[in-house]
């Protein structure tokens, strides 16, 4: 039954059948009413005829009584005349006898007619009674049929009302489903538009990431060149023993390539456009923002350490601070990139200057941490008259920058600049160069350990060190940022950098 109610066509067919049944019941009731009316009319007609017949019978009884009285009067008169006059004549007697016979015949005929009328009246009464009984019986049956039909009609009306309610409910559900379908279609269109926009943004970001990777590789090459030049200059200065001249605000000799780069950068930042006050104020505001972010990053990195699987369990606070500062640096670039068109030229110059300062900042932070460690170690050692050369680190190692511990630090304006990923990469290389158990899982060409068995890997899912990887930043970092950023800046906060392989 529920399936029938759920089917609209079946419900409509049932309603049509119920309507036809109602029409048939109405027609039957109308025919019964017509028959009842005809029977009532016949009954009235028969009652009128019975009344007329009764009147005729009463009239005949009255006439018969009159004739009896008249006959009685004649007989009495004849008897009196006979007694008074003696014997009547023969002619008058014959006449009277003839009249008497006529009256008797007439009386007999009237009696027969009265009996016939009486029998007819009785038959009519019987017919009338039978007709009345038939009418009553038919009326009773018709009333029973009408009551049953009324009950069926009430049930069918209830069914029809319930079906109508179900139809309205189904129609409302259909309307709701249509609305939901429309909303889903609109949401699907919006999601497709968002997906296309996200794909466009991803393509744009991949292009920007490739450019940044190229610039990063250039910076790495410049770093290697500067390190080689620095090593050569150290070897020359140690072998020659001649004093060197240093820039009053820098860490490098004045005749080195790094000093020239620093001087060029300073000129581009402050000396080329001394009249552009707005650009200098904007640069100052950006430097102050970066300085505040650096302070918060140092406070967070002082209480946390980063774990690298396969190597030593904890890194120094430098790696965590550098990673956070790199993200902050990139977010600063993204904020500058979404600025107004009037500030784009200054922000691009500031980006270039910050990229150039990243190498200096990296070396400065690594040297400062190394100097502090060396100073603590020297304070703990006994005051022996050892050779100064024993305290120096080998010139070929990455920590050879500690030989220049007597150099002054950079001012705050140059120290607030965040470095790129160079220092973290060097720390990673240094830890990979140290012997540990993490390198046993690295594949070494030409060396097969005992019990080696190749893994059953799907060639389509094999990842190499040179592949690009996208890392999403955590929610805690976004909650700790001082400013709000848009979706494009969030995508810029997670740059994809090539993985560094271990040093062989």
TrEMBL record:
The keyword Transmembrane does not apply. It is found in: Mitochondrion. Its main location: mitochondrion. GO terms for biological process: anterograde axonal transport of mitochondrion; endosome to lysosome transport; mitochondrion distribution; neurogenesis; protein targeting; vesicle transport along microtubule. This is Trafficking kinesin-binding protein 1-like. Keywords: Coiled coil, Mitochondrion. Residues 93-236 form a coiled coil. GO terms for molecular function: GABA receptor binding; myosin binding. Residues 1-236 form the HAP1 N-terminal domain. The keyword Nucleotide-binding does not apply. One of its GO terms (cellular component) is mitochondrion. Belongs to the milton family. Pfam families: HAP1_N, Milton. It comes from the Eukaryota. Residues 298-423 form the Trafficking kinesin-binding protein C-terminal domain.
């Amino acid at each position: 039954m529920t399936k029938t109610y759920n089917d609209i066509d079946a419900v409509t067919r049932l309603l049509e059948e119920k309507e036809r049944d109602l029409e048939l019941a109405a027609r039957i009731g109308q025919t019964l009413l017509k028959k009842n009316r005809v029977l009532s009319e016949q009954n009235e007609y028969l009652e009128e005829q019975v009344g007329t017949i009764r009147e005729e019978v009463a009239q005949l009884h009255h006439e018969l009584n009159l004739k009896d009285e008249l006959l009685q009067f004649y007989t009495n008169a004849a008897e009196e005349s006979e007694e008074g006059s003696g014997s009547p004549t023969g002619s008058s007697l014959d006449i009277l006898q003839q009249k008497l016979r006529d009256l008797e015949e007439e009386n007999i005929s009237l009696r027969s007619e009265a009996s016939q009328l009486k029998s007819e009246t009785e038959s009519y009464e019987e017919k009338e009674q039978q007709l009345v009984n038939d009418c009553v019986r038919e009326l009773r049956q018709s009333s029973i049929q009408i009551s049953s039909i009324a009950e069926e009609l009430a049930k069918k009306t209830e069914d029809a009302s319930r079906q109508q309610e179900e139809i309205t409910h189904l129609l409302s559900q259909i309307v709701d489903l249509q609305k939901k379908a429309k909303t889903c279609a609109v949401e699907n269109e919006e999601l497709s538009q968002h997906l296309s926009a996200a794909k466009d943004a991803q393509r744009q970001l991949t292009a920007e990431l490739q450019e940044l990777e190229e610039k990063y590789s250039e910076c790495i090459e410049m770093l290697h060149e500067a390190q080689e030049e620095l090593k050569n200059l150290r070897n020359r200065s140690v072998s020659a023993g001649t004093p060197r001249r240093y820039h009053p605000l820098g860490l490098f000799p004045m005749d080195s390539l790094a000093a020239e780069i620093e001087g060029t950068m300073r000129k581009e930042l402050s000396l080329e456009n001394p009249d552009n006050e707005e650009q200098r104020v904007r640069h100052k505001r950006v430097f102050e923002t970066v300085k505040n972010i650096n302070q918060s990053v140092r406070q967070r990195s002082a209480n946390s350490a980063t774990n690298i699987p396969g190597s030593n369990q904890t890194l120094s606070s430098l790696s965590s601070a550098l990673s956070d500062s790199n993200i902050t640096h990139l977010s600063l670039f993204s904020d500058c990139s979404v600025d107004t068109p009037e500030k784009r030229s200054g922000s691009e110059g500031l980006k270039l200057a910050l990229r150039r300062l990243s190498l200096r900042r990296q070396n400065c932070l690594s040297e400062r941490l190394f100097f502090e460690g060396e100073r603590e170690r020297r304070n703990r050692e006994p005051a022996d008259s050892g050779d100064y050369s024993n305290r120096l680190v080998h010139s070929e190692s990455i920590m050879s920058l500690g030989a220049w511990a007597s150099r002054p630090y950079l001012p705050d304006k140059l120290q607030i600049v965040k470095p790129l990923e160079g220092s973290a990469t060097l720390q990673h290389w240094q830890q990979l160069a140290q012997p540990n158990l993490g390198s046993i899982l690295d594949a070494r060409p030409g060396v097969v350990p005992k019990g080696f068995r190749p893994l059953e890997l799907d060639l389509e899912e094999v990842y190499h060190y040179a592949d690009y990887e996208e890392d999403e930043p955590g929610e805690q970092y976004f909650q700790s940022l001082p400013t709000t950023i848009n979706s494009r800046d969030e995508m810029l906060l997670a740059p994809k950098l090539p993985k560094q392989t271990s040093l062989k």
